[in-house]
Amino acid sequence: MEGHFIARAIVCIMILGMGVPIEVVGRNVSSSKLTVVNIGALFTVNSVIGRSVKPAIKAAIDDVNSDSSILQGKQLNLIMRDTNCSGFLGTVEALQLMVNDVVAAIGPQSSGIAHIISHVVNELHVPLLSFGATDPTLSALQFPYFLRTTQSDYFQMQAIADLVEYYKWREVIAIFVDDDYGRNGISALGDALAKNRASISYKAAFTPGAPISDINDLLVGVNLMESRVYVVHVNPDTGLRVFDVANHLGMMTNGYVWIATEWLSSVIDSSETMDPDEMDLLQGVVMLRHYTPDTNSKKTFLTRWKQIKDKETLSFNPYALYAYDSVWLLARALDVLLSEGESISFSYDPKLKETKGSTLHLSTLRRFDQGEKLLRILTTMNFTGLSGQIKFDQDRNLIHPAYEILNIGGTGSRRIGYWSNHSHLSVTAPGSSYMKPLNNSAKDQQLYDVVWPGETIKVPRGWVFPNNGKPLQIAVPYRVTYKEFGTKDKGPIGVRGYCIDVFEAAVDLLPYPVPRTYILYGDGQRNPSFSNLVLDVSQHKYDAAVGDVTIVTNRTRIVDFTQPFMESGLVVVVPVKKVKSSAWAFLKPFSWEMWSVTGAFFIFVGAVVWILEHRMNHEFRGTPRQQLITVFWFSFSTMFFAHRENTVSTMGRLVLILWLFVVLIINSSYTASLTSILTVQQLSSQIEGIDSLVSSNVPIGVQDGSFALNYLIDELQIAPSRIKIMKTQDNYVDELRKGPKGGGVAAIVDELPYIQLFLSNVNCEFKIVGQEFTRSGWGFAFQRDSPLAVDLSTAILQLSENGDLQRIHDKWLSKNACSAQSNQVDDTRLSLNSFWGLFLICGVACFISLTVFFFRVYLQYRRYIPEDEENGFEDPESIMTDKRPSRGTSFKKFVDTKETEIKDKLKRKSSDSNSKQQTSQIADGQLSSPS
């Protein structure tokens, strides 16, 4: 209702003011028999855009009227109105245009006028086909009869936001004209930047047609600010004043970034040759231009342009193509409307009636009856024009928005890439990219090198410390414990410590000065809360926090951290006690099972070797007493590789080699284990790491102000009643010495750098158990999107590479180091599980050797027994007692007999057997011969 009221009021006031004659023709006025269709054109003729648009619109009207295949014989009649670069006069001209029974209007050029006239055309159902109003808010549902035939600034600002992200800038300053076009375009830029975690740090607006002095004052203030990336979104007719002033202020030199929206390319394209002095003002500027494909029809129009008479410019900008296509879009839509049997007619709007006593003749305004249907046809059209494909999406924006990105240098400009809503930044023309998948990856964006102001290809940093700004307000934790990391000092800067030295060294590596002031955070009575410190930085109470601030997940959500300069992680510390040596300490390396099996194997192997060597090695023979001593001596002397007996049998040597290898391993392990036992410290509690600490119910100590408190409660679900806050290192010592039974704590959970310093201060009276159960680091905290965080991260890496970071560490923290781990004595004992494989191999070798040995002896015995029975191999005692030896007794004597004797007897047996055979053969021969 408010829009309708505004439209009525403005129209009526203008009609009365202009003295428009009032004529009542009737309720319905039909023009079905007319051969002329009125269309309007609304723009500033004497302007950068108007000088290109006017010839293009006239050429399009001529082309349509000369084409007999369209509009069914009707002709288009162009009614042109000049808005004269004035919002007020432009509105008046637009209202005058509406009373001429136009079916549609090409324009307006101005977004401000479009806002006002859109209310009027909504009431009169007259579509507006605007080739120049780029204000994104005109696409709202509030303006259904506004149809933009050019690209919306919504997409242009998306392109600029991608440029800012591509070069890793985080803040820009927007310089714009303070009207609907400028305000709403910059608002769209802010939204686009926010999606990429960037922002507009300052909006520098000036009034339309502002004098040079106002622009000068504006840029002087801008130059004192931090950001050096400027986005200029102004009108093309006065925009060059901004660069003229910037050049005089020295703002077109090295370190500055100037990005101009498509208004600048429109200025340059409209002039076949730019003034060299004006081009000197623009060196290094990056600008955007509407992308229109290089088609044959576009080239033909370029040739035709040169033949057009009465044109005020030798060249044209893309708005001429959009205006030309707008005429053809309307003509095609009217052709569809007429082909469906519709006639063009106008009628009086019953809502626009005179009120009693009113002198406003609203009833004279007529509504286009087919306007709603024509609008529907317009939004469904699809054809290829000079500017590319003319087709609207569901938001009634032209599909495939795209821009060229240009860099001004010398006497012209060069293309450094393209932007489209499909491929974003690319060096490939948008037409080919629509066949590929949508590209939203930042790492795949690509542009050619830019020559920035100051004739450098090095990408500007994009910001400086403001000339009139305050020094950085840096909060430093006022520590009570571990003051080596950072605390109060009487020196010039007021603070000192390891973290301060690292920050100062990193700042010294930056290529620009960083004015700074250190502010102590805390009361000096207890350690401050680091979580509150980070929160204060995020709320802009401080610019940064420099100290031992741990980088944890919930903190990274509200501030930006630098590269970690110190690795950290939570560890568990418990008391320890020295192990006192005893007279039986030498037995502790092995478990009792290991001792038993080892001793048994010494005897077993000695017995096996004796069995294998007894029949052939004289060193293993003798009286039973001597042989028993030999077995034990040989067995245990192998422990020291001091055995004197030689092995002569193959099997004996095999067993001995394997056994000596087992002995070597056992000796080495025993020596290492005994050394560890004699030097190890034993824990005085059963806490072996974070798992056993969590599962127990013992009290735990944490440092005051540390994030460990919240971590234990929130992440590990430890009851708060079990946790004690430790405010000083003396509390650490006292509570650990007391232990749980004395009202102290069983363990302390704290970050590794603190614990390492604490242990060195107490001469390693306590120990770290288990492993670090968190992995993090210390970094410097800055407000979100602060460029200092990135630059200091690079500086910290340089400190690490050149060794300065380690030298600072050694200056403040290098003391007697304690071992990070401690083991209980029971953990150093070696059990049978570690050696059963060796014993198994040795036992198998012994078993195989014995099997082969007894099988061989058995075969010899089988050959040997018949000889004993035949020749009376008997014991002399058995002969005297008239007793024959048993078979078992004979085998026992056989085994005990030296193998050389057995072999000799077998040889004799073989020769005697041959002699007897020969004698028997001779005897048989004599008996068979005749007497």
UniProtKB/TrEMBL annotation:
Membrane topology, from the record: Multi-pass membrane protein
Subcellular location: Membrane
InterPro entries given in the database record: ANF_lig-bd_rcpt (IPR001828), GABAb_receptor_plant_PBP1 (IPR044440), Glu/Gly-bd (IPR019594), Ionotropic_Glu_rcpt (IPR015683), Iontro_rcpt_C (IPR001320), Iontropic_Glu_rcpt_pln (IPR017103), Peripla_BP_I (IPR028082)
Keyword Nucleotide-binding (UniProt): no
Tagged with keyword Transmembrane helix: yes
Its job: Glutamate-gated receptor that probably acts as non-selective cation channel.
Name under which the protein is recorded: Glutamate receptor
